[in-house]
């Protein structure tokens, strides 16, 4: 299933844009734009999404290259972690107060 | 809940939405130093400042008219960079006579402008805009690259900032020269026409004037930029399957205040409001 | 400048939501709205919610794009190089805001080409305020102070709109918008502290923009067909009249700082309500401009259409080039793998 919003009829395809706001942080999705190819997409992303110095690095990805989880199966897809509290550190209450744990 | 709520809760509370203004460290707007230019240096700074001002004004005409919205933003960025360069350069030029950047931009007449004819050429279609950008950005890149080593520290500082920006303008123009020349039959036809319309004005960029002899080590001798310019554009032209147009050379004369018919109209528009209110500040 | 399209929308009536027999996904949608959570692009949503959002977001985007024109009108004539730079940056921001919003609208399954086509065919609405001309430099001040000011009042609550991409776009926009209002205020302040001619220019401009700015909040609450449903869905958070009142309460002290007079003889402080009482708004003008009989409707659309039409060969060229380069790359990599195989 591809990302929403992409349309095969448009003359310039849609690109999703991710910006790393500073070193040490992940790239974060900021929006999308249109561009004829990846070269101009990355330049347009620079002009559009970093006018105020918001980024040190930009990724562009064709919107139709993104695969997403199936939203209709949402409940089931993300159900498994619930009930597995032992994955969380806070589950282990007896060790509370012991230093360096 | 989200960053949204945190950011704007204060605004909602004051019943207006005083969208929290991010606290940012503001960079200097102009390259501004205490130095006072000598009259020769001021003249040279006026050359470069007028080039940027006139070209920036031309690109400013385009805002909201670009072929695609993304390109509107890109051309806007280039115009802003050029206006920024013009301000720093004219500010410095004005220091010789106690005038401000605006005194020079708004209160000089056409014969006092020192810009090159290429800068004042009307926009034309997108291919013409790109052809003009292609030439000017490569020229300015070579110029500022060398001017960084100027013995005049203010000029060197201005050039150091400007060179990074025109490097991007250069890349922008190259991307579009490739796309227009290799895109469709129509775009190629337009690109070829634009290039041959622009080329008569290229020669003037590299002409020396007597003042250059007096500014050894301070100014960049225009004629010395030609080889680097030709070398930089050659591979792009090859990739774009274009050739340097053969044709006539315009007489030029911008550095001596002799201009084409276009500059007077450009200045009339640029200066109309300011001149209607002598002594006013804005 | 930016304007939320919401109150203007009023073109299609949203279907009434029926209560009983909720499907599981509809139940989930309602639960998310009730919990003040966000709806995201691939979530199930009622068709009317989707339609309402597409209408509002695309109108908002169109307003940004058309809104570039009244100000770009003064870029070449800006009275100082600093003002010229500020104005270019501002108009450029508006293109950016339009793009953020088109991008949000696209997540609802509508294409930008479709939205653009609707705009230049004159079928889509945008904020009527941009159909007013900008004959003087002071209008750059009034647009920033009054028009962007009104827009911000509308937009800050939209940052919490229930549709995720819309809210996120609005957060970005609001952050950038505060610069717009301030620069407008400062243009007027500079004029009011200037020559007599400059002061007159400022006052005359405020006189022209004040009422249209108040109309930006849309018709009175009892005459705003889409508002109730939009508030229920938490797309909209406050009523038109509520926001309009907030705006005026904020404006009066600012006008005092500027030294301009707001052109409403009935405007006065009400001790009982602790708010300003406003004079009657002339809604016939609002409806005239909305119906396309404003001063600059035709001109604005034509400019947009011209830019779009004149840009077509450029967009086609870039698309054709992209195809050629992709083919070239494909051939090259095919040749490479052949080399490896042999």
TrEMBL record, chain A:
Its EC number is 1.14.13.149. InterPro entries: PaaB, PaaB_sf. Keywords: Oxidoreductase. Pfam families: PaaB (PF06243). GO terms for molecular function: phenylacetyl-CoA 1,2-epoxidase activity. This is 1,2-phenylacetyl-CoA epoxidase subunit B. It comes from Cryobacterium frigoriphilum.
UniProtKB/TrEMBL annotation, chain B:
It holds the Pfam family PaaA_PaaC. GO terms for cellular component: cytosol. One of its GO terms (biological process) is phenylacetate catabolic process. This is Phenylacetate-CoA oxygenase subunit PaaI. The gene is paaI. InterPro entries: Aromatic_CoA_ox/epox (IPR052703), Ferritin-like (IPR012347), Ferritin-like_SF (IPR009078), PaaA_PaaC (IPR007814), PaaC (IPR011882). It comes from the Bacteria.
Automatic annotation (TrEMBL), chain C:
Its EC number is 1.14.13.149. Residues 1-23 are annotated as: Disordered. One of its GO terms (biological process) is phenylacetate catabolic process. Pfam families: PaaA_PaaC. InterPro entries: Aromatic_CoA_ox/epox, Ferritin-like, Ferritin-like_SF, PaaA, PaaA_PaaC. Keywords: Oxidoreductase. Coiled coil: none annotated. SUPFAM superfamilies: Ferritin-like (SSF47240). GO terms for cellular component: cytosol. The keyword Isomerase does not apply. One of its GO terms (molecular function) is phenylacetyl-CoA 1,2-epoxidase activity. This is 1,2-phenylacetyl-CoA epoxidase subunit A. It comes from Cryobacterium frigoriphilum.
């Amino acid at each position: 299933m591809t990302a929403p919003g992409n349309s095969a009829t448009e003359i310039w395809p849609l690109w999703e844009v991710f910006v790393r706001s500073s070193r040490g942080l992940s790239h974060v999705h900021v929006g999308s734009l249109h561009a004829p190819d990846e070269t101009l997409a990355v330049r347009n992303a620079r002009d559009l999404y970093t006018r105020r110095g918001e980024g040190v690095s930009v990724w562009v990805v064709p919107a139709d290259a993104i695969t997403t989880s199936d939203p209709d199966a949402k409940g089931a897809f993300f159900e498994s972690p619930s009930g597995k509290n032992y994955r969380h550190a806070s589950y282990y209450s007896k060790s509370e107060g012991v230093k360096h744990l | 809940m989200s960053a949204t709520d945190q950011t704007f809760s204060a605004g909602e509370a004051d019943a207006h939405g005083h969208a929290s203004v991010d606290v940012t460290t503001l960079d200097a707007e102009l390259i501004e130093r205490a130095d006072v230019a000598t009259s020769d240096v001021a003249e040279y700074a006026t050359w470069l400042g007028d080039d940027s001002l006139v070209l920036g004004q031309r690109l400013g005409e385009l805002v909201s008219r670009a072929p695609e919205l993304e390109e509107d933003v890109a051309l806007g960025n280039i115009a802003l960079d050029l206006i920024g360069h013009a301000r720093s350069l004219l500010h410095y030029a004005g220091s010789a006579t106690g005038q401000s950047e605006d005194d020079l931009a708004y209160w000089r007449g056409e014969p006092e402008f020192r810009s090159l004819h290429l800068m004042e050429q009307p926009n034309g279609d997108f291919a013409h805009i790109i052809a003009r950008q292609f030439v000017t950005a490569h020229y300015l890149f070579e110029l500022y690259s060398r001017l960084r080593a100027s013995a005049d520290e203010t000029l060197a500082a201005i050039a150091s900032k400007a060179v990074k920006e025109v490097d991007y303008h250069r890349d922008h123009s190259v991307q579009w020269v490739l796309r227009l020349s290799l895109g469709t039959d129509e775009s190629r036809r337009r690109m070829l026409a634009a290039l041959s319309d622009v080329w008569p004005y290229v020669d003037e960029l590299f002409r020396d004037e007597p003042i250059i002899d007096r500014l050894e080590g301070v100014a960049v001798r225009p004629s010395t930029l030609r080889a680097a310019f030709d070398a930089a554009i050659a591979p792009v032209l090859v990739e774009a399957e274009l050739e340097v147009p053969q044709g006539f050379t315009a007489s030029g004369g911008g550095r001596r205040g002799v201009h084409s018919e276009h500059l007077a109209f450009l200045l009339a528009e640029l200066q109309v409001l300011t001149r209607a209110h002598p002594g006013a500040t804005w | 400048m930016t304007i939320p399209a919401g109150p203007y929308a009023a073109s299609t009536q949203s279907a009434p939501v029926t209560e009983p027999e909720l499907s599981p996904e509809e139940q989930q949608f309602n639960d998310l709205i009730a919990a003040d959570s966000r709806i995201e692009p691939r979530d199930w949503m009622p068709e009317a919610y989707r339609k309402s959002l597409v209408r509002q977001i695309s109108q908002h985007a169109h307003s940004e794009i058309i809104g570039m024109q009244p100000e770009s009108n003064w870029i070449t004539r800006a009275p100082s190089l600093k003002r010229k730079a500020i104005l270019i940056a501002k108009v450029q921001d508006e293109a950016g805001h339009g793009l953020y919003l088109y991008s949000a609208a696209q997540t609802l399954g509508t294409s930008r080409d479709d939205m653009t086509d609707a705009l230049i065919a004159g079928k889509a609405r945008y904020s009527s305020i941009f159909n007013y001309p900008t004959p003087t430099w002071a209008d750059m001040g009034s647009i920033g102070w009054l028009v962007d000011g009104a827009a911000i009042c509308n937009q800050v609550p939209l940052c919490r709109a229930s549709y995720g991409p819309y809210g996120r776009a609005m957060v970005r926009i609001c952050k950038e918008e505060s610069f717009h209002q301030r620069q407008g205020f400062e243009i007027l302040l500079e004029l009011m502290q200037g020559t007599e001619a400059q002061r007159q220019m400022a006052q005359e401009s405020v006189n022209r923009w004040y009422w249209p700015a108040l109309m930006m909040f849309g018709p009175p609450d009892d005459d705003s067909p889409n508002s109730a449903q939009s508030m229920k869905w938490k797309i909209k958070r406050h009523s038109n009249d509520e926001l309009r009142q907030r705006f005026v309460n904020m404006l009066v002290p600012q006008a005092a700082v500027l030294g301009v007079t707001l052109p409403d003889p009935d405007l006065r402080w009400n001790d009982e309500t602790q708010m300003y009482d406003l004079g009657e708004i002339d809604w016939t003008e609002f409806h005239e401009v909305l119906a396309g009989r404003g001063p600059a409707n035709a001109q604005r659309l034509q400019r947009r259409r011209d830019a779009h039409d004149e840009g077509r060969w450029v967009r086609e060229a870039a698309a054709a080039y992209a195809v050629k380069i992709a083919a070239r790359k494909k051939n090259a990599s095919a040749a490479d793998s052949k080399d490896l195989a042999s």
